[in-house]
UniProtKB/TrEMBL annotation:
Residues 7-126 form the Response regulatory domain. InterPro entries: AAA+_ATPase, AAA_lid_NorR, CheY-like_superfamily, Homeodomain-like_sf, HTH_Fis, P-loop_NTPase, Sig_transdc_resp-reg_receiver, Sigma_54_int. SMART domains: AAA (SM00382), REC (SM00448). Residues 156-385 form the Sigma-54 factor interaction domain. The modification 4-aspartylphosphate is found at D56. Gene3D superfamilies: 1.10.8.60, 3.40.50.2300, Homeodomain-like (1.10.10.60), P-loop containing nucleotide triphosphate hydrolases (3.40.50.300). PROSITE patterns: RESPONSE_REGULATORY, SIGMA54_INTERACT_2, SIGMA54_INTERACT_3, SIGMA54_INTERACT_4. It comes from Rhodocytophaga aerolata. This is Sigma-54 dependent transcriptional regulator. SUPFAM superfamilies: CheY-like, Homeodomain-like, P-loop containing nucleoside triphosphate hydrolases. Keywords: ATP-binding, DNA-binding, Nucleotide-binding, Phosphoprotein, Transcription, Transcription regulation. The keyword ATP-binding applies.
Length: 457
């Protein structure tokens, strides 16, 4: 017999029911409390952490309308909104039990119950409570993070025309439930844009679930996104909700959506069209209420032309398309970003307030930052660590691990020349492995080959 974990409260006015249920559940390893008087429930809840509450629907002799059960159901949920409550009811009260489910009950069992059915219902209720608590924890964490972040658009920083245009678009799109596709190079802050959309939406008090699709293997895709039931595969030790279920009511952010293979694109499209998920190993479909935001650094429109991305999926995910500008397109924001990161890392590494010399700043503004804000942030962190005193007077603290744009006597190289040099460096870095170069750049192989032909590489 498999031993289970969990704390259960059984509330019923029949001592025989209490002793029978207690004996059976203790055999399976549960911690069990019993209570004859429902009026004692609030005191028990204040002292105990309960995974499941088994609640009778009628307590007064002669009563069979279920009003008492409904009353105590509401009382419990007021005291613990995440409670998992299973109602115990007679056959003739099934319709009332269904009303109770709509009022917040987790499930119901018929008296007299089958032991295995009771056990399965309890295990499912315990798993549901875990999921509720996980979502609540995520929600609270995110709300705290939002409270700690200053600025109208969260961690997005910049006053350049490109950023002001972005802010204007966010202001229009965020309050809607429109599906949004965020495009931009690696390191531009696509997830920050997604979070800003969420925190300015009508769902801002609900959870924000971020999923890096590039980090999920094809074999685990369905299990991670849609969930699984116990025994669905070798390592499925218990029921587990997927990311879509956890995000229901809030926002789900699918990053790196351009990395999905065509078969996985088909599975995702099916869920997005029906707004229902089916856990791996289950025949039951669950409705999900989500706001969808996707992001990629890959050229999805080109990929549709090359038949590597489904056109119908692209239509589904980009009701509104937002492009995040590269750092080289908003160079006037570099001083503001550097100032922000200097202050942040000075606090982190307990350094004095650091000042950067104007000549150094001028050189940093000329660098094209192929890794965008992420590269700038890492460079500032490194400079803070290596700095001495309160002034940074050499760009080497920032850039001695990266190359400044090459110049020829009397002129600065054009952006195309810089791009050609950067492609050449990546080809050397990966020893001619085009797939790795394409992955680094966030391009498809055909798109990269066109660039290489353009520059004669």
């Amino acid at each position: 017999m498999t031993k289970q974990e969990g704390s259960i409260l059984i509330v019923d006015d029949d001592p025989d029911v209490l002793s029978t249920a207690q004996m059976f559940l203790k055999q399976h390893g549960f911690t069990v409390q019993t209570e004859l008087q429902p009026k004692n429930i609030p005191a028990i809840l204040s002292k105990s952490i309960l995974d499941v509450i088994l609640l009778d629907m009628n307590f007064t002799r002669g009563e069979n309308g279920g009003k008492e059960g409904m009353h105590w159901l509401k009382q419990i949920l007021q005291q613990d909104p995440q409670a998992s409550i299973i109602l115990m009811t007679a056959y003739g009260e099934v319709e009332l039990a269904v009303q109770a489910l709509k009022a917040g009950a987790t499930d119901f069992v018929l008296k007299p119950w089958e032991n295995q059915k009771l056990l399965a219902t309890i295990l499912s209720a315990i798993q549901l409570r875990k999921s509720k608590l996980e979502v609540e924890k995520l929600r609270n964490t995110q709300q705290q993070l939002s409270a700690d972040i200053h600025g109208q658009y969260g961690e997005l920083i910049g006053n350049s025309p490109a950023m002001k245009e972005l802010y204007g678009l966010l202001e229009k799109v965020a309050p809607t439930d429109a599906n949004v596709l965020i495009l931009g190079e690696n390191g531009t802050g696509k997830e920050l844009v997604a979070r800003a959309l969420h925190t300015h939406s009508l769902r801002k008090k609900e959870v924000f679930i971020s999923v890096d699709l590039g980090a999920i293997s094809e074999t685990l895709f369905e299990s991670e996104l849609f969930g699984h039931v116990k025994g669905a595969f070798t390592d499925a030790k218990e029921d587990k909700p997927g990311r879509f279920e956890l995000a229901s009511g809030g926002t789900i952010f699918l990053d790196e959506i351009g990395n999905l293979t065509l078969p996985l694109q088909t599975k995702l499209l099916t869920v997005l069209q029906s707004r229902t998920v089916r856990r791996v190993g289950s025949h039951q479909e669950k409705k999900v209420d989500i706001r969808l935001i996707c992001a990629t650094n890959m050229p999805l429109h080109e990929m549709v032309y090359e038949n590597t991305f489904r056109q119908d999926l692209l239509y589904r995910i980009n009701t509104v398309e937002i492009r995040v500008p590269a750092l080289r397109e908003r160079a006037e924001d570099i001083p503001l970003l550097i100032s922000h990161f200097l202050a942040m890392y000075a606090r982190k590494y307990k350094k004095p307030a650091l000042r950067i010399e104007p000549a150094v700043l001028a050189k940093l503004k000329k660098y094209i930052w192929p890794g965008n804000i992420r590269e700038l942030q890492h460079a500032v962190e490194r400079a803070v660590i290596l700095s001495e005193g309160t002034s940074i007077s050499s760009p080497d603290l920032f850039l001695n691990q990266v190359r400044m744009p090459t110049t020829q006597p009397g002129r600065t190289l054009t952006l195309e020349e810089v791009e050609r040099n950067y492609l050449r460096e990546l080809i050397e870095k990966y020893e001619g492995n085009i797939s790795k170069v394409a992955r680094e750049l966030g391009m498809t192989r055909p798109a990269l080959y066109r660039r290489l032909n353009k520059y004669g590489l």
